[in-house]
Amino acid sequence: MSENLRIVAYTETYKDAFKTLNEEWILKYFKIEEMDRIALNNPKKYILDKGGYIAVALLDDEPVGVCALIHCDYPGFDYEMAKMGVSPKVQGRGIGKLLAEHIIAKARFQGAKRLYLESNKVLKPAISLYRKLGFVQIHGAKSPYERSDIQMELLL
């Protein structure tokens, strides 16, 4: 990995990158849903103001990846790891793993005990990464996303 990669906390400077990096993967496999529009168009209100956090991966100061830690409404979970997107031009270089590890560390720092995520089984590299990080599949959580066909948890 390049020594010019760093992960920083989201600021409004990265608002467009947060939206674009997520829309790239969503539109490649699925469609933009109402919950996407809400979160991607106003991450400050939907994520940050509710006690969440967004990490931005910068490669040579260009945003190439994002991942959010969203305060979770699901009973028994503290946070949801969500809205992870890595630019197609740098996928396969470990940036998603670094972002996920950063978000997990942030959740631990915030005192979280259980981290939740939802995804789709067609996203095989993502599911594989989540499993390598220790996430296990769970059942019974209701998702606001049509595309979600797998929910996972990580005990911290």
From TrEMBL:
InterPro entries: Acyl_CoA_acyltransferase, GNAT_dom, NAT_camello-type. Gene3D superfamilies: 3.40.630.30. This is MarR family transcriptional regulator. Residues 16-156 form the N-acetyltransferase domain. CDD domains: NAT_SF (cd04301). It comes from Flagellimonas eckloniae. Keywords: Transferase. The keyword Transferase applies. The keyword Disulfide bond does not apply. One of its GO terms (molecular function) is N-acetyltransferase activity. It comes from the Bacteria. It holds the Pfam family Acetyltransf_1.
